[in-house]
Amino acid sequence: MAPVLNFNALPVNIPRQVVFLLLFGSHCVWCESSTSCMMCPDGSVDLAYPDRIVPFFNLGGNNSNPTCQQVAAAAQSTESVNCAVVQAQAGYCGCAGVEPQRKCSFCPDGSKPANADTVSPSNDKCGDLFTYIEYLGEQDCESNRLRSMQGLAYLCGCPGVEPQCTVCPDGSPPPLLDVIAMPTGETCREMLEVIESYTADVCIDSDTTVLVTAARCGCPGSEFPVCSVQQNSHLCTHDLLDTVPDQDCECYSFCDGQFSTCFDFPGGILNAQVCPGVAVSGCNRASATGEQKSESYRPTTKVPLFPLLVGLGMTISFACVLL
Prior knowledge:
The structure is a single chain. By secondary structure, the protein is α/β, with parallel strands linked by helices. It has a domain at 233-283. 20% of the residues lie in helices and 7% in strands. It contains 9 helices and 6 strands, in the order ββαααααααααββββ. It has a 3-stranded parallel sheet. The longest helix has 10 residues, at 207-216. The protein is elongated and about 75 Å long. The chain starts with 19 loop residues before the first strand and ends in a 5-residue tail after the last strand. Residues 1-34 and 296-323 have low confidence and may be disordered.
């Protein structure tokens, strides 16, 4: 019986998951059954580059950056596999006699990226991305997966390429580059690389991530978006916030009209022990009603409790789509 491997869905900030799938299991859509799948056309797994990372490829479980050798070995040891997808990696992985098709390009002008040794937020080397794309077929040149790879063109130093997404609205680098921006430890400097690698579609879908990063990293004029964890949000007013001008919260909370505590985005709940009266939480300028009388709210940078929403678009997944 084939192993059941979970489909590793991308985070909520990266929808539109038109994903090429390397499919395992007995209930897969598009699966091609094979008792043995060898990566190379000559029937071998003699790879010149066994340690190359296969870009944007999910082998299942926690292995989202498998090597060529790992992909080839998994294909051999699994009862049901889409062998065509495995063999599509043959040229990049160094099978003999497979030449690059050069139908698609990483940089718009077809040149090699200037920063070939740079490792992207997806843990792929820019030079490997360039090489991998040279082996793609013409049918892949308009795919979402390729567009996600090309989103890294600015980071990788492709000539004439500008980022499709920026942390600060004016395109300037965040002033507080060394501040921790995410709960998993990413700094503003690291999040700058991540966000500048987003495609235009992912940038739109990742609006909350971008806005929170901008506010935490000190971008001029940036404010926190509406806190998603709220109590009695209809009671959140600018007048209420004006009562605590000395507090800089991402998400404010009040009990019976008196300031209680700050919560980091996306907010928190005041329980009955903390506030036996009327609790208002998840309140900030973005959600407040009424007329704002004080100067524009400007948050300070805090160590966050906000879920990291990172990912860089389309992957091949070594997983099943169950019927």
